[in-house]
Amino acid sequence: MTPSSTSSPKPRLGLILRSAAFFAVMCLITLVIGPVMVLRRKAPFAVRYGLAQYWVRSVLAALEKICGLRYEVHGVEHIPPQNGVILSKHQSAWETIALQAIFPPMAFVLKRELLKIPVWGWAMDTCEPIAIDRGAKSAALKQLLQQGEHRLNQGRWVVLFPEGTRVPPGQKGKYAGSGGMLAQRAGCPVVPVAHNAGEFWPRNGFLKRPGVIQVRIGPPIDTTRHKAQEIVDLAEHWIEAQMAEISQARQP
């Protein structure tokens, strides 16, 4: 038996064409809205973030219409009236878009290098993310705690992916404790989020498969009653339990 005969079937032409069409439309949306955001970088934050929200909703609408990929959110009732720290599963680029529609306004914790990406990175910079240098761990943690507390005091959600990088479906990375430290320092709740976006929009994947991404929002964690690592452990336990259920729901 040859190696090619044991490989997975080639994707259908229609799936490739729809994914290519979505990519082209997303680039077009970015090229239209991105420069406007850069030119308005000195405008009030509400104006800049409003432009970012228009980009987010346009991309999500294109994803649904072109690729047939939409999402359902469960647990909206768990979102507290007070903003806080979001600890989310990280499988795909999808959640970096969709979470902005679910929890506005927000500030992402991301790699500094991403802000150097032409147009998209420059536009993202106008929304005041927390851009850290992962190579300088102590300085990055200090920056996260200082800028994160400032963003929280401004009324924004702060989103962290505690696993640090995108993890394929069925796998789990090590959960870092910085999110618990930030929430405890700021005296705000932690909201855990689970989703299975990686099953439809894979890590570093070009193809976007049709379907319904399941997003689950957990009950907020009271950070006044737990130590920083305990907070992260509680979030990890809830997220991974939900991931197991989501995967089971997709089994025939």
Automatic annotation (TrEMBL):
Keywords: Acyltransferase, Membrane, Transferase, Transmembrane, Transmembrane helix
Pfam annotation, one family: Acyltransferase
GO biological process: phosphatidic acid biosynthetic process
Record pathway: Lipid metabolism
Transmembrane annotation, as ranges: 20-39
InterPro entries xref list: Plipid/glycerol_acylTrfase
GO molecular function: 1-acylglycerol-3-phosphate O-acyltransferase activity
Residues covered by the Phospholipid/glycerol acyltransferase domain: 84-198
Protein name stated in the entry: Lysophosphatidic acid acyltransferase
Lineage: Bacteria, Pseudomonadati, Pseudomonadota, Gammaproteobacteria, Methylococcales
